[in-house]
Each structure stands twice: as structure tokens, then as C-alpha cells.
Design a protein that fits this description.
With about 300 residues, the chain is α/β, with parallel strands linked by helices. The protein has twelve helices and ten strands. Strands 1-10-9-8-7-6-5-2-3-4 form a ten-stranded mixed β-sheet, with helices on both faces.
Length: about 300
């Protein structure tokens, strides 16, 4: 926060030397993302791009499910199914007609998992609340999932209250907390450096990826490495921005990207879409829906 604009100037270090230096900390730039993007051919169909399940929303907060679902679809999965309470059914079907819907038996909350076998990737958490039934449903989801899970928002808060469950989370799962949510998972940090250490230790201990959101969002990996993002702006500090990130990462996971690739590419694309939206709207007027609309432009830039 004490540095304004930071400009990195070349001082003549040879690229081969830099590439062979043994480090665990990386700054993610466009050149790091492009080689990881998969190419599509004309003979592929929706079955090749995976089926994602998004568990999101509660009474009065279906908007989180809508935002995450739209972002997920804009990232390229073949199919998306949303699991929502009964009260959210007409909303999600109207706002996101491209998404299929599984309707919970509860009118207002996430209370059951249903059949999760058909899905290649599962994301859970945006605005699901912390009711006892919801906590039990999340526990069953963790126990029954055969694929890595994506935990966001209330799913993380629930695990913060039930820390013994974290050991049963499938390896390679992704957590996307903001600093306060991460504090509930671990402990209060005195500063950013200490928080990053806790982040890396958590990732190594449980064999998961931790996306700690903020300016220069960082992705800690199970091998102890950490990737710092270079896209994004203050206009993205608004409710719903995290739901967009959840949808983006889930979309990549469904398509067969590794959890590491999904997290790093997802974070970069999320910030890039925010930057493109800020160019048109400015920081103050920026809302999450603007980021969704800029995902296509973001993909074009990454592929240039």
C-alpha cells in the first residue's frame, strides 16, 4: 500500500538463468496463461467440455447463484446444472435459461446433495447460508464427492466452524476465501506476510489450493508454491465479485483443466475482465455483471 505505480525494468539478467532459478513464488502474467489455454476443434461437442454443478443461493440471495452461473457458462463448460432452493427456481430459470436446475426439497435453503455422480466439477458456497441442515448437506457432499470440490463463501464459513471436516475434503480441492473467511479457517494474522505463510501452510497440510482474494490475489498450492496475480482493480471490491470468480474457476474445472490451472487462469481472467469493465464504467460504477460481459473480450486478449 506504500507503493504507487510499480514499473519493472530489465537489468540484463538472462532469461534462461531466470527460468532455472529454483523459487516457489511466481508473478502471473499474460505470457504464463496463454500456453495453458486449450484449443477447440470443430468436431468437439458439449460432451467434451464437461458438466459442472453449482450449489448456490438461499432465500433472498438467489442473485449469487445467477452471477456465478452466468460467469461459469461464459467460461466454456459444456453443461451447467445449478442446485438451488425451491424459492429460487423461477428466478434462475428466467435469468439463466442456459443452465439446468436441480431443485432442493427445501423452500429456502440448501439441505440435500442429490445425485452428484454425473458431474465433472462441483462448486459450493455462494450465499447458501449456515443453517444446520445446510451444514449437514455440505458434510455429505464432502464425504460423497469423487472429484475435487470448489469451496467459496458460506461453505468456507461452515468449514471454519467444523474444522475437523477439512481433513476429509478431496485432495486438489480449491478454497476461495477473502481474508476474513480465511481467518475463520485458520487464525488471525498480524500482517500480509504472516497471512501468506498461513495460506501456504494450509495448502500443503490439506493438499488443496487456496485462492486468497484481494489486490494481487494469491494462489497457494499443495507443493508449497504460490502464484501472485497481476490483473484486477479497486472497482472489483463490490458484493458479487467473488461469485463471478467462483463461476469462472468452476467452468475451467469442468472442462478438464487441473485445479492448479483452473485457479491461476481463473483468477487472471477474472481480474482481466474487471480491468476491461473498469475502462468502460470506471471504478465506482463497476458491478459484477459488467465483468461477466467482458469475459469474452478477456479470452480474446489471452489468445492474441
Amino acid at each position: 500500500q506504500y507503493v504507487g505505480e510499480w514499473h519493472v525494468l530489465p537489468i540484463g539478467l538472462h532469461a534462461d538463468f531466470i527460468n532455472h532459478v529454483n523459487v516457489k513464488y511466481y508473478l502471473v502474467e499474460k505470457a504464463d496463461i496463454k500456453p495453458s489455454l486449450k484449443k477447440r476443434n470443430k468436431f468437439q461437442h458439449k460432451g467434451h467440455f464437461g458438466h459442472a454443478l453449482l450449489v448456490a443461493g438461499a432465500y433472498g440471495k438467489t442473485g449469487a447463484a445467477v452471477l456465478a452461473a452466468k460467469a461459469c457458462l461464459r467460461t466454456g463448460p459444456g453443461l451447467l446444472t445449478t442446485h438451488i432452493p425451491k424459492a429460487g427456481y423461477p428466478i434462475i430459470q428466467t435469468a439463466v435459461p442456459e443452465a439446468m436446475t436441480v431443485i432442493d426439497s427445501s423452500e429456502h435453503i440448501f439441505s440435500e446433495t442429490g445425485d452428484i455422480a454425473p458431474f465433472n466439477a462441483i462448486g459450493v458456497g455462494p450465499a447458501i447460508g449456515m443453517e444446520k441442515q445446510t451444514q449437514n448437506a455440505l458434510k455429505l457432499l464432502i464425504q460423497n464427492s469423487s472429484v475435487p470440490l470448489l469451496f467459496d463463501a458460506d461453505a468456507i464459513n461452515i468449514l471454519g466452524e467444523n474444522k475437523t471436516w477439512i481433513s476429509f475434503v478431496p485432495k486438489g480441492s480449491i478454497f476461495t476465501p477473502h481474508p476474513k473467511e480465511f481467518e475463520r479457517l485458520t487464525e488471525k494474522a498480524a500482517n500480509d506476510f504472516e497471512r501468506n505463510q498461513l495460506q501456504r501452510e494450509f495448502a500443503v497440510k490439506y493438499g488443496v489450493y487456496v485462492v486468497l482474494k484481494g489486490y494481487h490475489t494469491s494462489v497457494a498450492c499443495p507443493d508449497g508454491s504460490c502464484y501472485f496475480n497481476t490483473t484486477g482493480n479497486p472497482g472489483m471490491a463490490t458484493g458479487g465479485s467473488g461469485d463471478i470468480l467462483t463461476g469462472i474457476i468452476l467452468g475451467f474445472m469442468a472442462q478438464g483443466y487441473s485445479p492448479k490451472e483452473s485457479a491461476i487462469i481463473g483468477v487472471y481472467l477474472h481480474g482481466l475482465a474487471g480491468d476491461l469493465a473498469a475502462e468502460e464504467r470506471g471504478y465506482e460504477a463497476l458491478i459484477p455483471s459488467d465483468m461477466v460481459e467482458m469475459l469474452g473480450a478477456g479470452f480474446k486478449i489471452l489468445k492474441e
